[in-house]
Amino acid sequence: MSQSPPPSSPKKDIVTRDIAGRLLFLGTGTSMGVPVVGCGCDVCQSTNPKNKRLRCSVIFGLPGGNLLIDTPPDLRTQLLNNGIGIIHAVAFTHSHADHLFGLDDVRLFQFYLGHAVPIYCEPNVDAKIRKVYDYAFSNEVQTHIGSRPALDMREIGTTPFEALGSEIIPIRLQHGPKFEVLGFRVGNVAYCTDTNKIPDESWEKLQGLDVLVLDALRPDPHPTHFSVEEAVEAAQKIGAKQTYFTHISCRLEHERTNHWLPEGMELAYDGLEIPLT
Ligand SMILES: [Zn+2]
Ligand SMILES: [Zn+2]
Ligand SMILES: [Zn+2]
Fold first, then answer.
1. What is the side-by-side order of every strand in the sheet holding 89-91?
2. Ligand 1 centre from 14 Cα, in Å?
3. For site-directed labelling of 170, which of 48, 54, 161, 163 has its Cα 20 to 30 A away?
């Protein structure tokens, strides 16, 4: 071994792609992702990249920074795949594992930002985060600052709030009969995943949309997600200029489903970017 110190590459500036003014789909798959491990169906075996769906997440590229919606288990891969080097804040739709279990990956951004990462969520999501990520809230001596995410928890409900200098409108959604989640509207774009019922109170918040993103799991009904037919019916009632469906299972092949869907509606896919209006 040489007497000189070990080689070390100098630290460089943060590298990130600018997505201000756009909504970026990091993932459009259902909770198992597509391909499903071990599944021999034609969608899971497809070579079309639009049939490869990581777990559901989007980034609103706001003028004030990147607002990540949910932290799926695929988060690190998704950020790398899309050249996104920094997240400035996170908002949660709900606390299911496919939307939450990548939260530890925001640990990096507390250093890039120089402060704890703002986390906007409802009280039940806050409680789940404190339980699952108990080490993030612990002062035990064996943890050090870099080993746990620094989370700046900010409670939200259905009242509009400001994040990164933009107005965010939360939209109440039913995810099965007993579970309430949030969708989010920014300007004329609304993101509504993990739902199979839009309660009366929320229809008004969905008026005048340029783009609606809506849950559409599979062809047949499901207890907690819209089927594609139910999603089309809801989307027609909402009447956005363009609708994209997300949280898609391997029962829906990208091209065949798009061919079947009415005009102005299509399946989203990982990496899709649309303008925020
Ligand atoms: Zn989900
Ligand atoms: Zn499959
Ligand atoms: Zn869910």
1. 151-155, 117-121, 89-91, 65-69, 57-62, 22-27, 273-275
2. 30
3. 54
Q: Is residue 139 part of a domain?
A: yes
Ligand in nearest proximity to the CA of 173: 3
- Is the Cα dihedral 256, 274, 77, 245 positive or negative? negative
Query: How many domains does the chain fold into?
Result: 1
> Is residue 227 situated within a structural domain?
yes
Closest CA to 192 of 216, 224, 218, 221: 216
Domain of residue 140, residue span: 22-269
Integer Cα distance of 195 and 234 in angstroms: 11
pLDDT tens-digit profile of 5-20? 888 887 779 999 999 9
Q: How far is the CA of 141 from the centre of ligand 3 (A)?
A: 35
- Rounded CA separation 27/29 (Å): 6
Mean pLDDT of the chain: 96
Cα-to-centroid distance, 55 and ligand 1 (Å): 8
Within a domain: 195: yes
* DSSP code of residue 196: S
